[in-house]
Design a protein that fits this description.
This protein has a single domain, classed as Rossmann fold. It contains 6 helices and 11 strands. The chain has helices at about 35-50, 65-70, 75-80, 100-115, 135-150, 175; strands at about 5, 20, 25-30, 55-60, 85-90, 120, 155-160, 180-185, 190-200, 205-215, 215-220. The strands form 2 sheets. A 9-stranded mixed beta sheet has the order 5-4-6-7-3-8-9-10-11, with helices on both faces. A two-stranded antiparallel ribbon has the order 1-2. The relative contact order is 0.22. Bound molecules: adenosine-5'-triphosphate and magnesium ion. Adenosine-5'-triphosphate (ATP) binds near residues 29, 34, 37 and 212.
């Protein structure tokens, strides 16, 4: 199986070298757990270290916050954007149920157009602007993942949760559709990451310390955090 190296320090060695190529990974966590920074770093490392073009589709976060993050972590996105190695796509969700799949297909179309090998959709929880019905979301996310697989794009879908360890997704269906699930936790002052599933991969079953510092995000592959210390 080919692997897409995430380039996130500490992560690849916990998942046999990287995400399975063309897979979709759910990155779940409550507000402020580091989902957006993780997503940006995944694209930045892909473009800088592995020469893989990537697209960041944002469904809600204003470019302002992305810009702050890029500057703050000294990631020089501008030349990568100029070289078409990174593209940022801003979506304005409209409360029109019929429009949802067309919008998602547009993400796939644009990713295909630029030859993206990596994609971040931040966040799929924003689909609730269109609908609250989990069966509707299930259908649309299934379709999205299917289309992304056919263009060989390895995708991180972020998802907002309430933060408890058994709260994996917003609609209760996303974790069944994706090939992998990574949960991020923040129990102040401690941050942690847990690889809950990674299809076709003998992954770490431990909860690892996760950090956000001046270099971006990182995971400590050698240290373990006790399951009991994470709030439910
Ligand atoms: N330079 C930095 N050094 C250390 N920690 C930082 C730095 N910049 C941001 N952070 C931490 O990262 C958090 C924000 O991370 P991020 O925006 O990725 O979270 P998120 O999971 O996307 O949140 P949301 O669900 O609100 O979008 C901040 O609240 C802060 O705790
Ligand atoms: Mg965010």
């Amino acid at each position: 199986m080919n692997r897409t190296k995430t380039g996130i320090p500490g992560l690849d060695e916990l998942i046999e070298g990287g995400f399975p190529e063309s897979s979709s990974i759910l990155l779940a966590g409550s507000s402020g757990t580091g989902k957006t920074i993780f997503g940006l770093e995944y694209l930045y490392r892909g473009a800088m270290d592995y020469d893989e073009p990537g697209m960041y589709a944002t469904l809600e976060e204003g470019p302002q916050n992305l810009w702050w993050n890029m500057q703050r972590f000294h990631w020089n996105f501008l030349p990568l954007q100029k070289d078409n190695k990174i593209q940022i796509l801003k979506f304005d969700p409209r409360p029109d149920d019929t429009d949802m799949d067309a919008q998602l297909s547009k993400i796939v179309e644009k990713a295909h157009e630029m030859g993206a090998k990596r994609l971040v959709v931040d966040s799929i929880t924003a689909l609730m602007f269109w609908t609250e019905r989990s069966e509707r979301v299930r259908y649309s996310v299934y379709n999205l993942i299917d289309q992304l697989r056919s263009i060989n794009c390895t995708t991180v879908l972020t998802c907002e949760t309430t933060g408890g360890k058994s709260n994996i997704s917003r609609f209760g269906v996303e974790e069944f559709l994706t090939d992998g699930v990574i949960q991020l936790f923040f129990n102040p002052p401690n941050r942690a990451a847990f690889i809950r599933k990674m299809r076709g991969t003998d992954h770490s079953k431990k909860i690892h310390p996760f950090a956000i510092d001046e270099n971006g995000v990182s995971i400590d592959p050698r240290e373990e955090i006790l399951w009991e210390s994470i709030k439910d």
